[in-house]
Structure formats: structure tokens, C-alpha cells
Design goal:
By secondary structure, the chain is mainly α. It is about 75% helix and about 0% strand.
Length: about 190
């Protein structure tokens, strides 16, 4: 019999890194004058760690398989994006905003599907996931389109986007990952 330790680790990591995204986003909103290079390295490290947690989540086989259903590809994408940003830490803020905007749009759209699947499963807070997913995707669109060329405004928008992304993933981690000590998945007792 397998334990649920991997699921617990994935959920805890998912929630922890969501809180880190919220914190990083709040820092960027409050202090948009941070060094682009420093911001790039911090964001790259968070993306790589988040990608690793998403991969752990995908292979954890949680009961509903909602929160981590797209995380094999998405976790790999986050690791690659983080590595690219690490290779170019002083890249222009515009490139960083486009990359994060597209990533956020994709995650928001995937979470819309997660919300709809959660509704079919009968999860009570599916609507909260849906609302946060739509808002997050909206921030991603705004970030990717770069409505302003002012660096501090773009950094603040990046911060708001990271804050929305963190809140969305925190909600999904809390609402859509169900852990019970002895659960059956695909006919197999875990």
C-alpha cells in the first residue's frame, strides 16, 4: 500500500509557493523600482521551484485529479521559463512581462477548465476558482499587451499579475486537492 505523503508534499508545496508568489507580487506593487535583474533572478527561482512542485503534484495522483491535471506540461514549461530568465537576468522588463503574461493567460485558461471540472465533481467553491481564473487571465492579457512603456508601471502590473496568480493557485490548492488516508484511484488503493 502506498501512502499519501507525495500528495501532502505537493499540496503543501503548492500552497507555500502560491503564498510566495503573492508575497513577491505585493513587493513589486509596493516597490516597483526594484532592480530588473534582481527581480528576474527572484522570479526565475520561484518559477523553477513552482515547476518542480507542479511535477510532484502531477505524479501524486490526488483523489480528484483537478489541481494537478495539467501540471506535467505546465510544470515543465515553468522550469524552462525560469531557466531562460536565469540565463538573461538583465533582460528588458518588456520581455519578462510578455513571458509572464503568456504564462499567466495559459494558467488562467487551464484553471477555468479546472473550475468547470470541480463543478462537475460537486466542489462547493468551484465558482471562486472560476472567478479568480478569469481575473488572472485578464491580468495576463494586460501584462502581455504592455499598456505602458513606463518601467515602474510595468513592474507594478507584473506584481498585480503575480499576486492574482498566487491567489488563484492558493485557492485551487486549498479547494481542489482532497487528501484522505486510504483513497482509491484507478482501482488502486493508495
Amino acid at each position: 500500500m502506498r501512502t499519501v505523503k507525495l500528495i501532502r508534499a505537493a499540496k503543501a508545496g503548492y500552497i507555500s509557493l502560491s503564498a510566495v508568489l503573492c508575497g513577491l507580487g505585493a513587493i513589486l506593487v509596493v516597490n516597483p523600482g526594484l532592480s530588473v535583474s534582481l527581480m528576474g533572478r527572484l522570479l526565475a527561482a520561484v518559477l523553477i521551484a513552482y515547476g518542480c512542485i507542479k511535477l510532484v503534484g502531477y505524479f501524486s495522483r490526488d483523489l480528484y485529479r483537478l489541481a494537478f491535471q495539467f501540471d506535467l506540461a505546465f510544470g515543465t514549461l515553468l522550469i524552462v521559463l525560469g531557466a531562460l530568465i536565469l540565463c538573461m537576468p538583465s533582460a528588458a522588463i518588456n520581455a519578462l512581462c510578455v513571458i509572464m503574461g503568456v504564462e499567466t493567460i495559459a494558467d488562467g485558461l487551464f484553471k477555468v477548465q479546472t473550475a468547470l471540472d470541480a463543478r462537475r465533481f460537486g466542489l462547493e467553491r468551484w465558482w471562486l476558482i472560476l472567478a479568480l481564473a478569469v481575473a488572472t487571465a485578464g491580468f495576463g492579457v494586460a501584462l502581455a499587451l504592455r499598456p505602458t512603456q513606463a518601467t515602474e508601471a510595468l513592474v507594478a502590473l507584473l506584481g498585480m499579475t503575480l499576486l492574482a496568480e498566487g491567489q488563484l493557485n492558493l485557492c485551487v490548492g486549498v479547494c481542489a486537492v482532497k487528501i484522505i488516508d486510504r483513497q482509491c484511484v484507478d482501482g488502486e488503493l493508495l
